[in-house]
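Why does residue order matter? Because the sequence determines the fold. Keep that principle in mind as you read this record.
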Amino acid sequence: MQAAPAVAVEVKPDRVSRFALAGLAGASLAVTVVWAVQRGDGLGGAVLALVATSLMALLPGFLRTAVRQLRWDGQAWHLSAPDGQARPTAVGQLAVALDFGNWMLLRFQPDPLSTPAARQWLPLSRVAVGPSWHALRCAAHAPRPMPAPAPPAGPAF
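Structure:
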């Protein structure tokens, strides 16, 4: 089976992803409000305050507009740090979490030996990626190449 060709795309926030994330955040807060009101005691109010505080803590990341570079070189995925950060490019594996044809949610898992970084979730749309969309989808869904076998160990004395 042939490996997917190399591809590089810019990962930048788009309106569809922001709208979807805002809808999920709003729905989670609304459900918590309804639950807290129906509960009617101090615990409901405490949980409501916790959920609202958590959503406010996530807001700066939601509003971030940093552009990143996602690249497949035929062996591994590379994800650059957001603009303005002096971190090295992370090397790791990419998995498709959701694929709706024109929108995908990808999970980038850095290799802990090469880059000490956390898992990244990358929402991408056909509109934001542009003409490289098909190549990106092919590379994301392609089977990964097998690692080179280790040389046989010599006789132990």
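DSSP finds four helices and six strands in the chain.
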